[in-house]
Specification:
Length: 81
């Protein structure tokens, strides 16, 4: 799913927009987001290291790894936690 709506959560958002990661997770769930894709090259080029989706603790708590191949990660959003 491509996140393009201004009011929707974007994968570039981090602690400055959502100080509590649970709020960001809830926003993803409420918008019906089921999977997220992270490309390490894009993260590096756009300096998105601080985005919630790129945080190991956020991934551990809210995401389930589906695919890890060549710097590309596909995660399934965990059911309501």
């Amino acid at each position: 799913m491509l996140l393009v709506l201004w009011s929707s959560p974007t994968w570039t958002q981090g602690i400055s927009e959502y100080p509590d990661p649970q709020d960001y997770y809830n926003k993803l769930i409420n918008f019906g987001i089921t999977h997220v894709f992270i490309n390490d090259y894009v993260v590096e080029q756009w300096r998105l290291e601080k985005a919630w989706l790129n945080q190991p603790e956020f991934q551990k708590n809210y995401l389930e790894l589906v695919l890890d191949s060549g710097g590309q990660l596909l995660f399934k959003i965990k059911n309501k936690v």
